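Backbone-to-sequence.
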């Protein structure tokens, strides 16, 4: 079993990172993909500690759309920072999370798009997958992936909350779709309906920890061990054993990230 998206380099894990890793391993996790904010030296230092504790853990580096405004005068600079950090990070296996977020007004849409495009082109050049964040920006996200990905960029739409049309667009691009604890929430019936329509050979599971803890852990800090609850819910939607979902999503992770 693999947590395909978490934030173990976040400061909220600094005090008990070793215990979090131990619980993940005890829960049967082979590895996790930890997301790093490009240029954040504190996260980079904690990521080094994480890899020393859990050598099978892998990393992804990117400029999140919330931070795109920092590069409004030089969007290409975002890709340069990501390139440099990946080059000095042996466990890095992806560019991300990157994308568009129109829900919050942290950066103008055009700036977000320029920074996103620059990183998609970088991933294409480095032959690395992309980890995509999209919120209320589905059409522009898919358009940029088509235009700048050129059919050559592989990746995943992480923490998927879209509907069937976005799922189809992602699958048509050859992308994977990652399900988080949101599919376990009582009010997520529509999302669970969408999840039933996505084949397991294109699915990943994640926690997005420390966020989005599934029941019975709602209201507490999420962590990779809880990804088992996502696997159980997805298994129920597809009518297969949870062990089948764990095995198949782990194989999908290996196919995408080549760890």
């Amino acid at each position: 079993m693999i947590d395909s998206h978490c934030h173990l380099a976040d400061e909220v894990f600094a005090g008990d990172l070793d215990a979090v890793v131990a619980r993940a391993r005890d829960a049967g996790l082979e590895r996790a993909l930890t997301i790093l904010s490009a240029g954040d030296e504190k996260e980079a230092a904690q990521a080094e500690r994480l890899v020393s504790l859990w050598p099978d853990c892998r990393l992804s580096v990117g400029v999140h759309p919330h931070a795109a405004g920092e590069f409004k005068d030089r969007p290409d600079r975002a890709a340069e920072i990501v390139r440099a950090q990946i080059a000095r990070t042996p466990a890095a296996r992806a560019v991300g999370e990157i994308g568009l977020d129109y829900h919050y007004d942290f950066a103008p849409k055009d700036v977000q798009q320029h920074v996103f495009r620059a990183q998609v082109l970088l991933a294409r050049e480095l032959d690395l997958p992309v980890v995509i964040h999209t919120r209320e920006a589905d059409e522009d996200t898919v358009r940029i992936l088509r235009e700048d990905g050129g059919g050559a960029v592989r990746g995943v739409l992480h923490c998927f909350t879209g509907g069937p049309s976005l799922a189809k667009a992602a699958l048509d691009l050859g992308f994977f779709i990652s399900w988080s604890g949101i599919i376990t929430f009582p009010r997520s019936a529509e999302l669970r309906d969408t999840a039933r329509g996505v084949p397991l050979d294109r699915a990943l599971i994640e926690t997005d920890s420390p966020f989005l803890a599934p029941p019975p852990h709602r209201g507490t800090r999420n962590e990779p061990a809880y990804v088992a609850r996502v696997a159980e819910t997805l298994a129920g939607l597809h009518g297969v054993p949870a062990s089948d979902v764990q095995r198949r999503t782990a194989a999908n992770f290996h196919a995408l990230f080549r760890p």
